[in-house]
Automatic annotation (TrEMBL):
Residues 16-185 form the Exocyst complex component EXOC6/Sec15 N-terminal domain. GO terms for biological process: Golgi to plasma membrane transport; intracellular protein transport; vesicle tethering involved in exocytosis. It comes from the Eukaryota. Component of the exocyst complex involved in the docking of exocytic vesicles with fusion sites on the plasma membrane. It comes from Chinchilla lanigera (Long-tailed chinchilla). Residues 379-727 form the Exocyst complex subunit EXOC6/Sec15 C-terminal domain. Pfam families: EXOC6_Sec15_N, Sec15_C. This is Exocyst complex component. Keywords: Exocytosis, Transport.
Length: 770
């Protein structure tokens, strides 16, 4: 209220304050007055005690001095005791602290020893114990801080060292992959050989009844082979090492454990897989000359096998470093590359032995990896492709073999002077002829030397094809089908082509062609023995529904038809050669009275040739004889109608008629048996009717009966008659210059001109009608 805005507020406050002070002064004065007597009494009492207090002070001072003098020695001893107690307490504290620090120092010393001994996994475990157990106890000390600061550096050192060891390991397995793969493939091969040997011992007939010269391989040979296989396996058993013996996997284990402890396992896994993928690409990259030798393929396969054997080992002994999905992905990538490489490089192979060795390597390669759980079906599919290529190479090789056989053959029946020689031929070729067996020595087989050689080579081809079919994990039915199909290719393509080429060769004469036809007949009959041969190998009956038949029947029949056609062609060519020797004097006035020399030589040649044809089938010989006569008739007719021949005299026609008569006599002598009646003579009917027409000069009958079925000159064509008559007309003009002075010659000339006009009219009428 002092600071209120009331007037005189401050003054009133001061007045009230003064009044209050006066009241307090009065109360104080009252109180002092009340206690004054007591204060006076107290002062009086103190004055009385003063004397006694001085006496007491003197006594206390004297007593204190005596005590001080008496306690000096005790104080000194007490201070010594205190000092000893402090030292003792400090020593106890130091011992306690040292006891707390010593395990830490010991563990750290152990850590350094482990690092020096390269026991990095144990060192990491020690670090973990230090951090979790020991360092928290002594964290206040400076040396502990230094240790704590040093541990990350040690961990990095361990990571770097372990990674370096891993790199050395990866480089080591890269170098030893081929050795690892070779060992794994050797183990797989030994196991397979043992299984096959047991299978053969158990009377499985795959390859059991192998025929060479119709003789079976003795059963004792199988036992010897099995014994040899077992002995060889026992010898090599001690030499075969496992993958652990060849490679030290401890760096991988250590590195994996170290990164697991460090919590960086994913980084290690990614690095390992990345590096192994790089190595896989290097392993899968083939050398450019790999296809040249089997060692190139073997090195390629062993490296791949070694790679995946290591991966399979890592898969089973580590947890998570590689997974089945990872190995499957890696294998699928590798398998695609392997198939592409093998397709490319195998296409360059032209040696069947090299392809066969490649097939064996692929089978061992596939069996080895299949034993480690990798799918290999695509490799066996590839083997089917290579099998087709192998068959093509075999076909090319056997084409050369067949060509050599045909080149070396003399195309003469095989002679057998003694029974021993006879049995040698029979052992090579399944020939049966009771009539030949009854004959006395010396005797001859109907076929030539090439037949048994070809038969043997076909069997050798089947053996060669069988070698590839083995170990493909296929049934006997499938193998039987493969053998029959490849044999069919050999017969229908290779042998057929060689036969056709042989038949077309210019140096092959009629005698050789006849022998070729005989040979193909016997080869065709031998096809059933080849089917039995395949059946004995595969033990698959020919009556099985899906059994493929051999196409030898059609193959040899086609070759025989080609040979027959070539016989007809060459026979006609030979006839043409003789006909070209003809040297007629077309202006001859009188005939010589005997046939031309070239024609008699031709007929003698045909007689000798048709003697050879007696070994041919009847229809072939008859067809060849009829073809020859028809061709001879056509050639003689063309000789008369040759455009370059301008004139023919009647004497020349008469001489020509003598030659035709000889041809007819030849035809009637039945040079080849089997013709009915005068069938062969009909080949010369056109010539005969034409010559008869000119010889008897029966033009009125010809012109009157032309076109009638019963006409005597039914086979004479008006064009032919007109051409020949015009040539005779020109001759009459040139040789009878003075014919107009002789009435008979004039009449004959007029008759010729009249007949010519009528024939032209007839020919023109035929043209208009046509």
């Amino acid at each position: 209220s002092v600071y209120d805005d009331q007037p005189n507020a401050h003054k009133k406050f001061m007045e009230k304050l003064d009044g209050c002070i006066r009241n307090h002064d009065k109360e104080i004065e009252k109180m002092c007055n009340f206690h004054h007597q007591g204060f006076v009494d107290a002062i009086t009492e103190l004055l009385k005690v003063r004397t006694d207090a001085e006496k007491l002070k003197v006594q206390v001072t004297d007593t204190n001095q005596r005590f001080q003098d008496a306690g000096k020695e005790m104080i000194i001893q007490t201070e010594d005791i205190i000092r000893c107690r402090i030292q003792q307490r400090n020593i106890t504290t130091v011992v306690e602290k040292l006891q707390l620090c010593l395990p830490v120092l010991e563990m750290y010393s152990k850590l350094r020893e482990q690092m020096s001994a390269k026991r990095y996994y144990s060192a990491l475990k020690t670090m973990e114990q230090l951090e979790k157990v020991y360092f928290p106890r002594v964290s206040q000390y400076r040396f502990c801080q230094l240790m704590i600061e040093n541990l990350p550096k040690l961990r990095e050192d361990i990571k770097e060292i372990s990674m370096s060891d891993l790199k050395d390991f990866l480089e080591s397995i890269r170098k030893h992959s081929d050795k690892i793969g070779e060992t794994a493939m050797k183990q797989a091969q030994q196991q397979k050989i043992f299984s096959v040997a047991l299978q053969k011992q158990n009377n499985v007939k795959f390859g059991k009844n192998m025929y060479i010269n119709n003789d079976r391989i003795p059963e004792e040979r199988k036992e010897i082979v099995l014994k040899h296989v077992l002995e060889e396996e026992d010898e090599n058993e001690e030499e075969v090492l496992s993958v652990q013996d060849l490679v030290d996997f401890s760096p991988v284990y250590r590195c994996l454990h170290i990164y697991s402890v460090l919590g960086d396992e994913e980084t290690f896994e990614n690095y390992y897989r990345k590096q192994r993928k790089k190595q896989a690409r290097l392993v899968l990259q083939p050398q450019s000359s790999m296809h040249e030798t089997v060692d190139g393929y073997r090195r390629y396969f062993t490296q791949i096998v070694g790679f995946f054997v290591v991966e399979d080992h890592i898969l089973h002994v580590t947890q998570g470093l590689v997974t089945r999905a990872y190995t499957d992905e890696l294998w699928n990538m590798a398998l695609s590359k392997i198939i592409a490489v093998l397709r490319a490089h195998s296409s360059y192979c032209t040696d069947p032995d090299l392809v066969l060795e490649l097939k064996n390597l692929i089978v061992i390669f596939a069996d080895t990896l299949q034993g480690y759980g990798f799918p290999v079906n695509r490799l066996f599919d590839l083997l089917f492709e290579i099998r087709d290529q192998y068959n093509e190479i075999l076909l090319k090789k056997w084409a050369g073999v067949f060509r050599d056989i045909f080149e070396e053959d003399n195309y003469s029946p095989i002679p057998a002077i003694s029974e021993e020689e006879y049995k040698i031929v029979i052992s090579k070729f399944p020939f049966q002829d009771p009539d030949l067996e009854k004959q006395s020595f010396p005797k001859k087989f109907p076929m030539s030397q090439s037949v048994p050689h070809i038969y043997i080579q076909v069997k050798e081809f089947i053996y060669a094809s069988l070698k590839f079919s083995e170990s493909l994990h296929r049934s006997s039915t499938e193998i039987d089908d493969m053998l029959r199909k490849s044999t069919n290719l050999l017969l229908t393509r290779t042998l057929s082509s060689c036969l056709l080429n042989l038949i077309k060769k210019p140096h092959i004469g009629l005698t050789e062609l006849v022998q070729i036809i005989i040979n193909t007949t016997h080869l065709e009959q031998a096809c059933k023995y080849l089917e039995d041969f395949i059946t004995n190998i595969t033990n698959i009956s020919q009556e099985t529904v899906h059994t493929t038949r051999l196409y030898g029947l059609s193959t040899f029949k086609d070759a025989r038809h080609a040979a027959e056609g070539e016989i007809y062609t060459k026979l006609n060519q030979k006839i043409d050669e003789f006909v070209q020797l003809a040297d007629y004097d077309w202006t001859l006035s009188e005939p010589d009275g005997r046939a031309s020399g070239y024609l008699m030589d031709l007929i003698n040649f045909l007689r000798s040739i048709f003697q050879v044809f007696t070994h041919l089938p009847g229809k072939v010989a008859q067809t060849a004889c009829m073809s020859a006569c028809q061709h001879l008739s056509t050639s003689l007719m063309q000789m008369l109608l040759d455009s370059e021949l301008k004139q023919i005299s009647m004497g020349a026609v008469q001489q020509f008629n003598l030659d035709v008569i000889q041809c007819e006599l030849f035809a009637s002598s039945e040079p080849v048996p089997g013709f009915q009646g005068d069938t062969l003579q009909l080949a010369f009917i056109d010539l005969r009717q034409l010559l008869d027409l000119f010889m008897v000069w029966d033009w009125s009958t010809y012109l009157a009966d032309y076109g009638q079925p019963a006409s005597k000159y039914l086979r004479v064509n008006p064009n032919t008659a007109l051409t020949l008559l015009e040539k005779m007309k020109d001759t009459s003009k040139k040789n009878n210059i003075f014919a107009q002075f002789r009435k008979n010659d004039r009449d004959k000339q007029k008759l010729i001109e009249t007949v010519v006009k009528q024939l032209r009219s007839l020919v023109n009428g035929m043209s208009q009608h046509t």
